[in-house]
Amino acid sequence: MIPPFGAGQRIGLFGGSFNPAHRGHVAVALYALKKLKLDWIWWLVAPQNPLKDPGDYADYEERLKQVQRVARHPRFIVSDLEREFGTTTTASFLKKLAPAMAKGHFVWIMGADSFADLHRWNDWTSIVRTVPLAFLARPGYSIRALKGPAALRYGAYRLPNADAALLPETPPPAWVFVPMPLRGESSTAIRKGRRKRL
Question: Which one has a higher pLDDT value, 58 or 89?
Answer without folding.
Answer: 89
